[in-house]
Amino acid sequence: MANLSTLQKEVLAYDQKYGWVEDKESHIALHMSEELGEISRCILRLEGYKKESYDKKALAEELIDLLYLTIKLGNTAGIDLEKEWYAAFERYEKKTSRKELK
Ligand SMILES: [Mg+2]
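A: This is the predicted complex of the input protein with magnesium ion.
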């Protein structure tokens, strides 16, 4: 399983290969919104709110589309996502630790 640092390098290599490293942060964020909409549509199908049949594979693909863009935005903004991931979980743990564990 690749770690986030490896995924950031893979995304950078992919974007360099196709000349997509010039994408602006605002455009990447807009594409992220688009992907979130696609994820939402899958969830509405899963819960039966939308009549079209739910497709787990489609949801998986949309989640990866959003993950790719998240990593891409991290690269563009110069953020070490792996470092920030663990820092975030330390913050979450402090919040959670205020509540009693069951
Ligand atoms: Mg998509």
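The mean pLDDT is 94. The longest helix spans residues 25-46.
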